[in-house]
UniProtKB/TrEMBL annotation:
This is ATP-binding protein. Keywords: ATP-binding, Nucleotide-binding. It comes from Paraburkholderia elongata. One of its GO terms (molecular function) is ATP binding. It comes from the Bacteria. InterPro entries: P-loop_NTPase (IPR027417), T4SS_component (IPR051162). SUPFAM superfamilies: P-loop containing nucleoside triphosphate hydrolases.
């Protein structure tokens, strides 16, 4: 215990030392003989004089140390005390311990003993008997803070951080937190301008360090700045808590990717956002990067995939070189012109076969690509990704939006979805003009899933498709800042991230980071010294080190804790939870109903209806029926029966009634007791109408508006039959449209005009599909062998009869016609096999079988078949 001594008392004590020294020196000189004892006494007095002189400058303290203990511990404590604080410089007197029974009372009352000191060997007398007079520097030796911890007493090191940030001149700014000085909050906030966020931000911290809450705190400030945001959340569902924020509740959207029962999402990977400003060629390159960054792609998978991508766009009428589509007219919707995942999956076999690799290599390539692509078409992922039209991008970018990926269990699938969203955002921004101010904020949680640190190439000769893809997306993030797009990248383990992410982000917010390699990387990017780097491992919940442009060294801040009605992510307040799945479902249902009520235009309204979450109990049943119908529509046997029905009813009205049972039979194979079979068939036929229309449009070069009209009319015919209505009228309209669209301007094969004299090609595309469906069979070889058999049996036909009255040639082509019967049986019902339409289909099939022969041979054989119809 210490109490300041008045300066006058210190001065009097100093004078007492001076007088005592003079007196002793005078006595020693009077004796005129050496006196070692006097010399030693003077040295001690000088030490006291020196202390008093120093005390006049720095302050003097009357000090007492109270040592309390029982009979054993007291003596040990007093001995230990003297051993620690005594030494050669314990002058003018060594440390002594006075035993006093009343010391406990003095300690309890925080009192000092005022007993006057006893007389010394000379005239000098201590001011206090049981108190020591110490200078400030001497007193400091008693109050050193502990350097080591002991049971019940902890020691925390605190690094020195800057406390003065760069002034924020722009009024549009976000508060990150309150600046702290040696662990204590100051009144000064750390602010970052919105324009600075276009240079992007990186938030790091281990699980439970407050990383998510920091980002939530920033997002809650965006409504006042009219800056929408998009959060991509791969693993958890914490950002849906923003639904409870009053300023966000009315506008926020939450989508659960892969979970069809809460808030479904639709995303066609092949849709080019912002076309024609963004070319199809650029989108194909981005798709290569999407696949490369998401899945392991060994050579030559990336090259094969690229060929497949080019093919499916070409099949849809796209010219990659000119960035145009010949089938897009003024009445067509651009969204209908893009391919789907199903088309990509179907194209793999075709491309791999054409490459001509050995069988084993071809099988490996085919299996690898199908495994990756078909995995994206399964379950909820298929419902989300294998679609024609996507959720309109402006509905993601113009409102605060949260995209949850926790329903997608596979990390590669999550990476694929994140990469797609990044690519779409990039295209959306490229289609707009450049701006300097912040117009939108993107948050990517667990960014290492797509922006992975893949290391360096082992060899310059070694391909690195994944590294190239990651580099592409890192560059995209850098480029979109020119369009007012800000990005907040968050991750737990900085070393897992591509180095470009840490290097190219302006704002760094670092919560607790434990691993030494992570801390070293962050320290190198934020100008930290060694002590500050070590401090990153001991930050508490909500503490963060911030560094941005203009800061010479990092600044420590404390993010404001959440209010009482919300929980800090990572805390243990389990009784406080965010919105449930049911809350999200109902919220999104209300949002969609609100969107429909708004004046958004009929075209966009129809697109939105395709993305309605089937959320009520009745709608869930409809959703199950829809999914079952989707599976039925994809069944090859069902599609074959549908084509047979459509081809037949174009010729005969009664065919739809006779063949209807075939479709219902196919539907029964997909029936379950818990699914309405009628709803399944209705769903399947609706989807099959679209498939048929766009398949024929692709083959015939119809415009997309014409394809949409075919889809509408065919669906009307089929649904009329389901509903028990007379389909005659819609069938007549459908038939007229098909005839109009099937008119041909050129003859695709020799003597086609003799087969279909009315200049229509009603069956060519259907025959193409028949051949494609049996591509594993040697159809051409079977045809050739049948023809050779006929020639050997009956000889060649020299010439056709000159007039109808002449007898037909004796030579027949019975075996050949039997082979051709397979096509007509496939495409027309049995009752129509003896009609002229069946003969046309057979001859059309023969034209396809002869296409690879010399034209001269082709003409000869097709002429023989025309001369021997049916024989």
């Amino acid at each position: 215990m210490a109490e300041p001594l008045q300066e006058s008392s210190t001065n009097r004590e100093r004078n007492k030392f001076i007088e005592e020294i003079r007196s002793v020196q005078a006595s020693a000189q009077a004796e005129k003989a050496p006196s070692p004892l006097a010399e030693y006494y003077i040295e001690q007095l000088k030490a006291g004089l020196h202390a008093c002189t120093a005390g006049l400058g720095t302050g003097m303290w009357r000090t007492a140390i109270y040592l309390l203990g029982d009979g054993k511990s007291y003596y040990r404590l007093s001995s230990l005390w003297r051993g620690i604080f005594s030494g050669e410089k314990s002058l003018p007197e060594p440390i002594r311990v006075w035993d006093c029974n009343d010391v406990s009372n003095l300690a309890e009352t925080w009192a000092l003993s005022d007993t006057e000191g006893s007389k010394g060997p000379g005239d000098f007398r201590h001011l206090f008997q049981h108190l020591s007079l110490l200078t400030s520097s001497q007193l400091a030796a008693y109050i050193h803070l502990p350097q080591l911890e002991s049971p019940g007493f902890s020691v925390h090191g605190v690094a020195a951080f800057d406390t003065v940030p760069q002034p924020v001149k722009d009024g549009r700014s976000l508060d990150i937190g309150t600046i702290t000085h040696f662990g204590r909050d100051t009144s000064q906030p750390y602010r970052i301008t919105t324009s600075a966020l276009t240079q992007h931000a990186f938030v790091a911290g281990v699980t439970g360090s407050g990383k998510t809450h920091t980002i939530l705190s920033l997002l809650k400030q965006t409504p006042a700045l009219e800056v929408p945001f998009l959060v991509i959340e791969p693993a958890k569902a914490e950002y849906r808590s923003l639904m409870d924020e009053p300023s966000l509740k009315a506008a926020i959207r939450v989508f659960t990717l892969g979970d069809e029962q809460i808030s479904p999402f639709r995303l066609n990977p092949f849709e080019v956002i912002g076309w024609p400003s963004v070319s199809v060629g650029v989108h194909i390159d981005l798709l290569r990067s999407v696949f490369g960054a998401s899945f392991g792609m060994w050579t030559p998978l990336p090259q094969v995939l690229e060929q497949c991508l080019h093919r499916i766009y070409r099949d849809r009428g796209w010219d990659i070189t000119t960035n145009s589509n010949s089938r897009l007219d003024k009445n067509s919707r651009v969204g209908d012109a893009f391919p789907t995942l199903s088309e990509l999956a179907a194209k793999v076999d075709e491309v791999v076969k054409e490459l001509g690799h050995p069988a084993e290599i071809s099988d490996n390539i085919r299996a690898a690509l199908h495994t990756r692509i078909d995995g994206l078409r399964a379950g909820g992922k298929g419902c989300m990704l294998d679609v024609q039209n996507s959720m309109p991008m402006n509905f993601l970018m113009e409102y605060p939006t949260v995209v949850e990926l926790q329903a997608m269990g596979d990390d590669d699938d999550k990476a694929f979805a994140i990469a797609l969203l990044l690519a779409r955002l990039y295209e959306y921004r490229r289609a707009s003009h450049e701006v300097r101010s912040l117009r939108h904020l993107l948050v990517i949680e667990e960014a290492h899933r797509i922006l992975t640190n893949v290391g360096t190439r082992k060899s310059q000769w070694e391909a690195d498709p994944r590294g190239k893809a990651v580099e592409t997306f890192a560059n995209l993030i850098s480029e979109i800042r020119a369009y007012g797009q800000g990005v907040i990248v968050a991750d737990q383990i900085p070393m897992k991230l591509a180095p470009e992410v840490i290097k190219n982000t302006n704002l760094k917010i670092i919560h607790r980071v434990v691993a030494a390699d992570d801390r070293e990387v962050l320290a190198g990017a934020t100008a930290m010294d060694e002590r500050q780097t070590r401090a990153l491992a001991t930050l508490t919940l909500g503490q963060a080190v911030v560094f941005s442009e203009g800061d010479d060294t990092p600044i420590m801040v404390r993010v404001a804790p959440p209010s009482n009605d919300e929980r800090l992510p990572g805390s243990n307040d389990e009784h406080i939870i965010g919105p449930t799945d049911e809350d999200v479902r109902l919220h999104m249902l209300a949002q969609k109903e609100k969107e429909w009520r708004e004046d958004i235009g009929e075209t966009l309204r129809q697109r939105l209806k395709q993305h309605v979450a089937r959320l009520s109990p009745l709608d869930i049943a409809a959703s199950i029926a829809h999914d079952a119908g989707r599976s039925l529509c994809a069944d090859p046997n069902f599609r074959r029966d549908l084509v047979r029905l459509v081809t037949s009813m174009i010729k005969c009205d009664e065919s739809i009634e006779r063949l209807w049972a075939d479709l219902k039979y196919r539907q029964q194979a997909f029936s379950r007791s818990d699914i309405d079979s009628a709803a399944v068939l209705r769903s399947a036929l609706t989807q099959a109408s679209k498939w048929y229309a766009y398949r024929r449009a692709s083959q015939g070069g119809w415009s997309y508006s014409e394809a949409a009209e075919v889809e509408r009319m065919l669906s009307e015919v089929l649904l009329s039959q389901i509903d028990g209505q007379d389909p005659a009228s819609p069938l007549a309209s459908f038939r007229a449209l098909i005839y109009e669209l099937s008119e041909r301007a050129i003859e695709p094969f020799p003597r086609c005009w003799e087969i279909c004299a009315n200049h229509t090609c009603l069956y060519r595309n259907a025959v193409d599909d028949f051949i494609e469906g049996r591509k594993n069979e040697d159809l051409e070889g079977v045809f050739n062998r049948a023809y050779v058999t006929d020639v050997r049996t009956t000889g060649r036909i020299a010439a056709a009869p000159k007039a109808p009255t002449e007898e037909p040639p004796k030579a027949q082509r019975k075996a050949t016609w039997e082979i051709l019967d397979e096509a007509s049986n496939e495409l027309l019902e049995r009752r129509l096999q003896n009609t002229e339409e069946a003969t046309r289909i057979r001859l059309c099939y023969a034209q396809h079988m002869l296409a690879s022969k010399f034209v001269e041979v082709h003409k000869q054989i097709i002429g023989e078949l025309l001369d021997t119809k049916g024989r």
